[in-house]
Structure formats: structure tokens, C-alpha cells
Amino acid sequence: MFRTNTTLKKWHVIGFFWIVIVGSLLHFTYEWSGKSTFVGYFSAVNETVWEHLKLGYFSLTFFMLIDYWVLRNKTTGYFAAKSLGIVSMNLFIVILNFIWETTIGKPPAIFHIALFIAAAFLCQYVSINVMRRYIEDNLNRIGLLVYIAIGLLFILLTPYQIEKTAFLNIL
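User: That's the sequence. What structure does it adopt?
Assistant: C-alpha cells below.
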């Protein structure tokens, strides 16, 4: 439906760089804040895979506060696209990290950096391809609910991450 829209392309490229840069900064904001509980809700509070999934989710969420106002009238499936993008990103990180750890062992830091960059690309790739299609309103609403549910899970489970190492898969 919106296959040649250069606005979609431009904002997805900007979004890729935003996710990589802001997501990388969110890795450190909990420590920089003096371990503020509030900052911990959207930053990594330890080195588990679970906490690193929050980096992509919240960097994308912060970007959505900007690009929603530009793209909302350019697509019928904004929230469906963002939901499928973040789910793809998180599954990619979890699966590749699991494969590496079970076959090779503890991955080096450069692996996690490259994995995050590749996952950010996948997130934006999936998102733009969904946005180019016609999406029914109901599916877009479901996408919004899924996106919110993922965020609530991250927020609700964060206090358990600060004191414990649930989803222990130390990076």
C-alpha cells in the first residue's frame, strides 16, 4: 500500500540509529543515576539478557513518542508494525544468545554489541514492511495492546531483577 513512501524509509533509518545509540546509553543510565529505582524501570539494572531486552524496547518507545506524529497518517498499521518489530528484535536476541551460549559458551562483549545492532536493524526492517501493508484497525489495536503488555512486563519484573537474577543468563 505505501511501498514507495520515502518518509517511511527516512524515519525507519533514523529509528535504527536512535535505537542503537539510545539503547546503548540506557545500558549505563541506571548506574549513572545512582541506581535510581525510577531509572531502573527503563534501563538495564544488571547484565542479564532480560534486562538487555529492555534497552531495545524503551529506546524504541522513546522514539515512538516522536515518529508517531510523523507516521500516523502514512500507514494503517503503526502499532502493529512497532509490536512486530520489537517482538522480532527480542526473539532474535534471545535465540541467538541461547544458540551461542549452548554451543560455544559465554559470548564476548563484542557479540552482544553486534547482536544488538543487528536486532535493531531487524526491528526496523520488520516495522517498515508491516507499515507498507494495509492493516485492519482491529489488528492495529491488538498491536498497541501487545506493545503496552510487553512494556508492563518489563516494568513489573524489573524490581525482581534488581535484587535477584531472574532470567539468569549473565552476559
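Helices lie at 6-32, 37-40, 49-71, 78-103, 109-131, 137-163.
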